[in-house]
Amino acid sequence: MQINTYESKVVQLVNDIRRQNRLQPLAINGALTQAARRHSQDMAMRGYLDHYSPEGRSCQERARAAGYPSQFVGENIAYGSPTPEQVVQKWMDSPGHRNNILNGNYRDIGVGFYHHPTSRYKYTWTQVFGSR
Predict the structure, then answer these.
(1) Strand-pair category, 108-115 with 27-28
(2) Coiled coil: which residue ranges (predicted)?
């Protein structure tokens, strides 16, 4: 699965942070990328920001539906940050999001970025982490 420049930059920044903290870099996973992209787009198009869809689907369910074979999945979401650097900094400034980024049990990552100029969130981001 091809990832866009913004998504790739987020992975690079996250892996740089993980290396600085003596953690293994994360591998890009196509199923997690697909789940992250779909969630970012869904949040932007339907105007919500949540780890659960309006129908109640969790990140684990979305990852499984995209083909990721594990229940050990975590997620970071954000909105409003127009650049990878800004969104990663926002996540690192938040203890829960930081914990996901620095969780040494995760091995895989997928990042989804969606820009919707008329959405109240405008820029939506999703990171999905997993370990098979």
Answers:
(1) parallel
(2) none
